[in-house]
Amino acid sequence: MREAGYRYNQHILTILGYSLIIGIPLLFILFNLNFYIMSLDLGGQENILLLFSSIFMFILLLYPFYVLYDKTEQDEEVSLRMLLGCFVHSFGPILFMSLLVMVAVYIGIALFMIPGIILFPFLFLFPFMYEPGLAVKQWIKKTIGFHNNHLITIWVQILFWGCFVYLLWAALLSLVSYFEMQPMTFAILRMVFSLMVYPFVIFGISEKMIELKREDSRL
Amino acid sequence: MKYLKVIGILLLVMTVLSFLLVIIIPNFYMHSAILFLISYSLLGFLVRNWKYPYFSGYMVACFIVIANTIFGDVILDIPLLFTPDIGFWSFILAICLTMLSVFTCRKFDFGGDAA
Description:
A: mainly alpha, B: mainly alpha, 4 helices, globular
């Protein structure tokens, strides 16, 4: 976590640039999707869709930050342009793979929860295991192998960072409880929060992921 | 993977351009026509150096058209998918434009050698 904080501080300008160019429009579109889902009446199922779209906000922003962390750890130069290129090239594969996993988790939840819970970590794993130039079959195989090798660590990471974000968000909401909370205020607050906190969270997870990947390649 | 990559790039370009073009072209029909032209020409440009450029362009164009109509059907509640003339014309136009763009890019050899 200390390393993640250090990297965050080191690349604060690049992160801000990326957030301004990609982050804000992307989150804006996804928040509109959120408001649309909120207006539906599916008898409770819309809460699952809301959770999915919130996770989507995290997943789609993820890969360039992972590359940023990976490159700086190997003392390579990183520019904003490279991050934008990374986002544009990784957008399609990550979008479609996470949509597929989301459908699988949704069906799994309908089958008495447990298959859904088993499939859930793949939502977060696929973007981390993405490599440009890898075939889709190899990508899936690699991710399943990684999941089976490090099941407990992955769950601990998801629970820890989930709690981290949740508690920070609760603290922020109690701080601004005197505001008049309209949907737009809520969306902007959440957007600013996401763009400030998610890079740190992604760096924290990347630290662990890179460590585990090295461990795997040594064996 | 490269198919997914191209589809992702096209979806991004469509989304970004549709927001930007609204400022320049307020007319709805002109807006969608120009967006259509730009995005499917870009598709032809992107697939020009692949092993089977025409077939890949054809398949990706079909996918994009179906994805767009499903989006319109599910999210916006506009019944596009099962309306024959809209489906027919967007399919024909998208595929023809892609083919034309692949042909032009290969003919005039834009951006590197066409394999």
